[in-house]
Design goal:
Blueprint (H helix, E strand, L loop, with lengths): L1 E2 L11 H15 L19 H5 L2 H17 L2 E13 L2 E7 L13 H14 L5 E7 L3 E8 L2 H10 L11 H12 L7 E7 L10 H10 L2 E8 L4 E8 L2 E8 L4 H11 L3 E4 L2 H14 L3 E12 L1 H20 L7
Parallel strand pairs: 3-4, 3-6, 6-7, 7-10
Antiparallel strand pairs: 1-2, 2-11, 4-5, 8-9
Helix pairs in contact: 1-3, 3-10, 4-5, 4-9, 6-7, 7-8
Organism: Parabacteroides chinchillae
Keywords: Cell membrane, Membrane, Transmembrane, Transmembrane helix
InterPro entries: Aerotolerance_reg_N, UPF0353/GerABKA_families, vWA_BatA_type, VWF_A, vWFA_dom_sf
């Protein structure tokens, strides 16, 4: 057994002055009488058995205090195995970071809104292997599949428009995501592809990448981001950043074909709320129960000690109010 907070054990030294104070009070409370002989008080049976039991409440209280200090020190056992059932799949997030993702029909803009909602999605799935692929005119892997979501979220914060050549290479981004998840041993492999445009560059056509995903049993959910009609877009001018409304052009037929080919589903996010609902819907659809054997190095063991403290205090109270009620 080990202790998470061993410094609390030094509080056991407080028992010494507590015991000393009890002995001092006990001696002060006893009356004295000088007699020529004490033989009359030594007759067998004169002293009540309750007199010998009067110290038991104090002993119980000291034991309770000592054990309470042990509880504060958090006793833990080590080397324990635990079988559990959990839910987990492998997921690659393929996110468009092209210049058009800076449009402000979503707040503060499409890219930041997508990052915030995706981060919440990641936090809600602690048992999944999740990776991140970004694309615009090119594509690269920001984070491979991992269960270390702290690292993933830190890398997620670093992505921004302009990191790579501008454009919208949907096919290239999807193909890159497929290459990152195709060798996974998980029963369920999922890609969530988010974009706000149509494929206009790259060597691989989106439908071809979808066929490759289907070959490896990968399901692709596609999300088109952008309001319907016009959206405010920032332009850098000699007078600073100016906003101009530009038409929203999302190649929905291609995105629908990608999802249909792979057994996924297409969604359209026109604002922050709908984007959040889309990720929530995907989260509900993609659940797979798996059996996991976890090895835990440390197991909290304070509960039994806490119950013992309660039991000792209960016995003390019962003794004081029943058998030892009239004993000082």
């Amino acid at each position: 057994m080990i202790f998470a907070n061993p410094l609390y054990l030094y509080l056991l030294l407080l028992l010494i002055p507590m015991i000393g104070w009890y002995i001092y009070k006990l001696r002060k409370s006893q009356a004295s009488l000088q007699v020529s002989s004490s033989e009359a008080f030594n007759v067998p049976g004169v002293t009540s058995w309750k007199v010998y039991l009067r110290h038991i409440p104090f002993v119980l209280r000291m034991a309770a205090v000592a054990i309470l200090i042990v509880v504060l020190a958090r006793p833990q056992s080590t080397n324990s195995w635990q079988n559990s059932s959990t839910e987990g799949i492998d997921i690659i997030l393929a996110m468009d970071i092209s210049g058009s993702m800076l449009a402000q029909d979503l707040k503060p803009n499409r890219l930041e809104a997508a990052k915030d909602v995706a981060a919440s999605f990641i936090n809600g799935r602690p048992n999944d292997n999740i990776g991140l692929v970004v694309f615009s005119g090119e594509s690269f892997t920001q984070c491979p599949l991992t269960t270390d979501h702290t690292v993933l979220l830190n890398l997620f914060k670093d992505i921004q428009s302009g990191m790579i050549q501008d454009g919208t290479a949907i096919g290239l981004g999807l193909a890159n995501a497929v290459s990152r998840i195709k060798d996974s041993q998980a029963k369920s492999k999922v890609i969530i592809l988010l974009t706000d445009g149509s494929n206009n560059t790259g060597e691989i056509a989106p439908v071809t990448a979808a066929e490759i995903a289907k070959t490896f049993g990968i399901r692709v959910y596609t999300i088109g981001v952008g309001t319907k009609g016009m959206a405010p877009y920032p332009f850098q001018t000699a007078f600073g950043i100016q906003y101009q409304n530009i038409p929203v052009e999302i190649d929905e037929p291609t995105l629908k074909q990608i999802s249909a080919t792979t057994g996924g589903q297409y969604f359209r996010a026109t604002d922050n709320a709908s984007l959040k609902e889309i990720y929530s819907e995907i989260d509900k659809m993609e659940k797979t129960k798996i059996s996991v054997q976890e090895y835990s190095k440390k197991q909290e063991e304070y509960k039994n000690w806490a119950l013992l403290v309660f039991a000792l205090l209960l016995v003390e109270v019962l003794l004081r109010n029943t058998l030892l009620r009239n004993i000082p």
